[in-house]
Amino acid sequence: MTITTLAVFCGSKEGNNPVFCEHAKHLGYLLAKKNITLIYGGGNKGIMGAVANAVLEKKGKVIGVMPKLLSGIEHRHYGISELLETEDMHTRKKMIYAKADAALILPGGYGTMDEFFEMITWNQLKIHNKKIFILNSAGFYDHLIAHLKMMEQENFLYKKITTQLTIVYSPKELVGEL
Asked: Which CATH number is 5-177 given?
């Protein structure tokens, strides 16, 4: 399957490690170069803003999806190609999933984890069969990956995590998978 749109779930904050934003920017440049549309949360701050601005800097296409309640909190990005507004978070996630051919998880907080776990659960339940990637920038997701492996070892998963997830360590490695 050719990937022409990529959902990116990530933090509306930058985090402490500068590599998180560096990877987000590099990813944005590579997506624009490959003509892959970024589908994301619609914010202009943190890692979200870094990836969106990098795509735009290289004349790529960016579609943001933001619920009304977050437009002040996540600082709506007014410079993107298209901004879609939803009534609530659940509708936002469904719209992002529907518009994207695959999903990528970058560093983030609770919202990022919520989006990741819903996406992988829907994959397991065969609601969709989209590729899911984790960009493990500077080992940010090492503990999560270890926990996923423990869930697999303890027989709580229906599939091996390697059949549902592709873990990469740099934007360049990810783009090789797209």
From this structure: 3.40.50.450
